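Issue: ligand-bound run for inosinic acid - logging full I/O for the record.

Environment: standard queue, default settings, no custom constraints.

Inputs:
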Amino acid sequence: MNAQAAPQVLIPRNEIDAEVRTLAARITADYRDTNPLLIGALKGCFMFMADLVRCLEFPLEIEFVRLSSYGDGTESSGKVNLVQGLNVPVEGRHVLVVEDIVDTGLTVAFLLEYLKEQRPASLKCCTLLDKPARRQCEVCVDYIGLEVPDRFLVGYGLDCDERYRNLPDICYLEK
Ligand code: IMP
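Outputs:
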Protein backbone atom coordinates (compact mmCIF):
# COMPACT_ATOMS: atom_id res chain seq x y z
CA MET A 1 0.00 0.00 0.00
CA ASN A 2 1.17 3.49 -0.77
CA ALA A 3 0.68 5.23 2.58
CA GLN A 4 0.96 8.64 0.92
CA ALA A 5 -2.00 8.16 -1.48
CA ALA A 6 -5.06 10.20 -0.55
CA PRO A 7 -8.04 8.13 0.62
CA GLN A 8 -10.76 7.82 -2.04
CA VAL A 9 -14.41 8.14 -1.05
CA LEU A 10 -16.33 4.85 -1.20
CA ILE A 11 -19.44 5.73 0.84
CA PRO A 12 -20.24 9.42 1.27
CA ARG A 13 -21.54 10.84 4.51
CA ASN A 14 -25.15 11.20 3.31
CA GLU A 15 -25.31 7.48 2.43
CA ILE A 16 -23.84 6.57 5.82
CA ASP A 17 -26.50 8.72 7.52
CA ALA A 18 -29.30 7.04 5.58
CA GLU A 19 -28.02 3.57 6.48
CA VAL A 20 -27.65 4.48 10.15
CA ARG A 21 -31.28 5.64 10.20
CA THR A 22 -32.43 2.40 8.54
CA LEU A 23 -30.55 0.28 11.09
CA ALA A 24 -31.89 2.43 13.94
CA ALA A 25 -35.47 1.90 12.77
CA ARG A 26 -34.99 -1.88 12.81
CA ILE A 27 -33.32 -1.81 16.22
CA THR A 28 -36.06 0.44 17.60
CA ALA A 29 -38.74 -2.00 16.47
CA ASP A 30 -36.96 -4.87 18.25
CA TYR A 31 -35.63 -3.21 21.43
CA ARG A 32 -37.93 -0.29 22.28
CA ASP A 33 -39.23 -1.76 25.56
CA THR A 34 -36.21 -3.77 26.68
CA ASN A 35 -33.74 -1.18 28.08
CA PRO A 36 -30.93 -2.83 26.10
CA LEU A 37 -27.23 -2.64 26.81
CA LEU A 38 -25.38 -1.58 23.66
CA ILE A 39 -21.77 -2.68 23.72
CA GLY A 40 -19.44 -1.02 21.25
CA ALA A 41 -16.15 -2.51 20.12
CA LEU A 42 -13.53 0.24 20.28
CA LYS A 43 -12.01 2.05 18.74
CA GLY A 44 -13.54 1.74 15.30
CA CYS A 45 -17.17 1.91 16.43
CA PHE A 46 -17.06 5.27 18.16
CA MET A 47 -18.53 7.36 15.36
CA PHE A 48 -21.13 4.81 14.32
CA MET A 49 -22.20 4.28 17.94
CA ALA A 50 -22.55 8.03 18.48
CA ASP A 51 -24.71 8.47 15.38
CA LEU A 52 -26.72 5.29 15.97
CA VAL A 53 -27.74 6.02 19.56
CA ARG A 54 -28.85 9.53 18.62
CA CYS A 55 -31.45 7.86 16.40
CA LEU A 56 -32.63 5.49 19.15
CA GLU A 57 -35.27 7.37 21.08
CA PHE A 58 -35.92 4.94 23.93
CA PRO A 59 -34.13 4.04 27.19
CA LEU A 60 -30.85 2.20 26.69
CA GLU A 61 -27.39 1.94 28.21
CA ILE A 62 -24.00 2.07 26.52
CA GLU A 63 -20.74 0.33 27.35
CA PHE A 64 -17.54 -0.27 25.43
CA VAL A 65 -14.96 -2.98 25.21
CA ARG A 66 -11.65 -2.66 23.47
CA LEU A 67 -10.35 -5.43 21.28
CA SER A 68 -7.38 -5.61 19.00
CA SER A 69 -6.70 -7.91 16.10
CA TYR A 70 -4.80 -5.62 13.77
CA GLY A 71 -1.13 -5.06 14.43
CA ASP A 72 0.25 -2.15 12.52
CA GLY A 73 -1.09 -1.56 9.04
CA THR A 74 -3.79 -3.29 7.05
CA GLU A 75 -3.49 -7.01 7.80
CA SER A 76 -5.31 -8.69 10.68
CA SER A 77 -2.98 -10.64 12.96
CA GLY A 78 -5.70 -13.30 13.18
CA LYS A 79 -5.48 -13.26 16.98
CA VAL A 80 -8.02 -11.26 18.96
CA ASN A 81 -7.01 -9.69 22.27
CA LEU A 82 -9.39 -8.25 24.84
CA VAL A 83 -7.59 -5.05 25.75
CA GLN A 84 -10.37 -3.71 27.97
CA GLY A 85 -13.35 -5.81 29.11
CA LEU A 86 -16.65 -4.88 30.71
CA ASN A 87 -17.11 -3.57 34.24
CA VAL A 88 -20.89 -3.98 34.34
CA PRO A 89 -22.98 -7.14 34.78
CA VAL A 90 -24.46 -8.51 31.60
CA GLU A 91 -26.45 -11.37 33.09
CA GLY A 92 -30.14 -11.04 32.28
CA ARG A 93 -29.64 -8.00 30.02
CA HIS A 94 -30.65 -7.64 26.40
CA VAL A 95 -27.28 -7.05 24.79
CA LEU A 96 -26.62 -5.61 21.35
CA VAL A 97 -23.03 -5.58 20.12
CA VAL A 98 -22.21 -2.60 17.90
CA GLU A 99 -19.38 -3.10 15.42
CA ASP A 100 -17.99 -0.81 12.75
CA ILE A 101 -17.03 -3.56 10.31
CA VAL A 102 -17.07 -7.35 10.20
CA ASP A 103 -14.11 -8.49 8.14
CA THR A 104 -12.62 -11.90 8.98
CA GLY A 105 -15.36 -12.25 11.62
CA LEU A 106 -12.85 -13.24 14.29
CA THR A 107 -13.44 -10.17 16.47
CA VAL A 108 -17.23 -10.50 16.54
CA ALA A 109 -17.01 -14.25 17.12
CA PHE A 110 -14.64 -13.67 20.05
CA LEU A 111 -16.78 -10.89 21.54
CA LEU A 112 -20.04 -12.83 21.23
CA GLU A 113 -18.46 -15.83 22.95
CA TYR A 114 -17.06 -13.61 25.73
CA LEU A 115 -20.51 -12.08 26.31
CA LYS A 116 -22.42 -15.35 25.99
CA GLU A 117 -20.46 -16.74 28.93
CA GLN A 118 -21.95 -13.94 31.04
CA ARG A 119 -25.50 -15.17 30.39
CA PRO A 120 -27.33 -12.19 28.84
CA ALA A 121 -31.11 -12.50 28.33
CA SER A 122 -30.47 -12.05 24.61
CA LEU A 123 -27.42 -11.36 22.50
CA LYS A 124 -27.42 -9.87 19.01
CA CYS A 125 -24.96 -8.04 16.84
CA CYS A 126 -25.15 -5.02 14.58
CA THR A 127 -22.50 -3.88 12.11
CA LEU A 128 -22.47 -0.87 9.83
CA LEU A 129 -20.16 -2.53 7.30
CA ASP A 130 -19.78 -6.11 6.17
CA LYS A 131 -16.82 -7.38 4.13
CA PRO A 132 -17.94 -10.97 3.45
CA ALA A 133 -15.13 -11.75 0.97
CA ARG A 134 -12.64 -12.00 3.82
CA ARG A 135 -14.64 -14.08 6.30
CA GLN A 136 -12.59 -16.72 8.13
CA CYS A 137 -15.26 -18.00 10.50
CA GLU A 138 -19.02 -18.30 10.57
CA VAL A 139 -20.67 -15.50 12.51
CA CYS A 140 -24.29 -14.59 12.92
CA VAL A 141 -24.74 -10.83 12.49
CA ASP A 142 -28.35 -9.78 13.05
CA TYR A 143 -28.29 -6.23 11.67
CA ILE A 144 -26.03 -5.57 8.68
CA GLY A 145 -25.73 -2.15 7.10
CA LEU A 146 -23.69 -1.94 3.92
CA GLU A 147 -21.75 -4.66 2.16
CA VAL A 148 -18.32 -3.43 1.11
CA PRO A 149 -15.69 -4.80 -1.29
CA ASP A 150 -12.41 -6.37 -0.23
CA ARG A 151 -10.53 -3.11 0.20
CA PHE A 152 -8.90 -1.55 3.22
CA LEU A 153 -11.24 1.16 4.46
CA VAL A 154 -10.62 4.25 6.55
CA GLY A 155 -12.71 7.11 7.86
CA TYR A 156 -15.88 7.34 9.94
CA GLY A 157 -13.97 5.79 12.85
CA LEU A 158 -11.88 3.32 10.83
CA ASP A 159 -8.13 3.76 10.87
CA CYS A 160 -4.89 2.75 9.26
CA ASP A 161 -2.20 2.89 11.93
CA GLU A 162 -4.47 5.26 13.90
CA ARG A 163 -4.80 7.70 10.99
CA TYR A 164 -7.95 8.81 9.17
CA ARG A 165 -10.51 7.99 11.89
CA ASN A 166 -11.80 11.56 11.67
CA LEU A 167 -12.72 11.49 7.97
CA PRO A 168 -16.49 12.00 7.63
CA ASP A 169 -16.84 9.61 4.66
CA ILE A 170 -15.89 5.94 4.39
CA CYS A 171 -12.89 5.81 2.08
CA TYR A 172 -10.51 3.24 0.68
CA LEU A 173 -6.75 3.34 0.41
CA GLU A 174 -5.19 2.65 -2.96
CA LYS A 175 -2.87 -0.38 -2.89
P1 IMP B 1 -12.31 -8.83 11.94
O1 IMP B 1 -11.97 -9.45 13.25
O2 IMP B 1 -11.30 -9.22 10.87
O3 IMP B 1 -13.72 -9.07 11.50
O4 IMP B 1 -12.10 -7.29 12.06
C1 IMP B 1 -12.76 -6.53 12.96
C2 IMP B 1 -12.02 -5.27 13.27
O5 IMP B 1 -10.87 -5.03 12.45
C3 IMP B 1 -12.95 -4.10 13.02
O6 IMP B 1 -13.68 -3.79 14.18
C4 IMP B 1 -12.00 -3.00 12.62
O7 IMP B 1 -11.56 -2.30 13.77
C5 IMP B 1 -10.84 -3.71 11.99
N1 IMP B 1 -10.97 -3.70 10.50
C6 IMP B 1 -11.41 -4.68 9.70
N2 IMP B 1 -11.40 -4.30 8.41
C7 IMP B 1 -10.95 -3.02 8.40
C8 IMP B 1 -10.73 -2.06 7.36
O8 IMP B 1 -10.97 -2.27 6.15
N3 IMP B 1 -10.25 -0.86 7.77
C9 IMP B 1 -9.99 -0.54 9.07
N4 IMP B 1 -10.18 -1.42 10.07
C10 IMP B 1 -10.67 -2.64 9.74
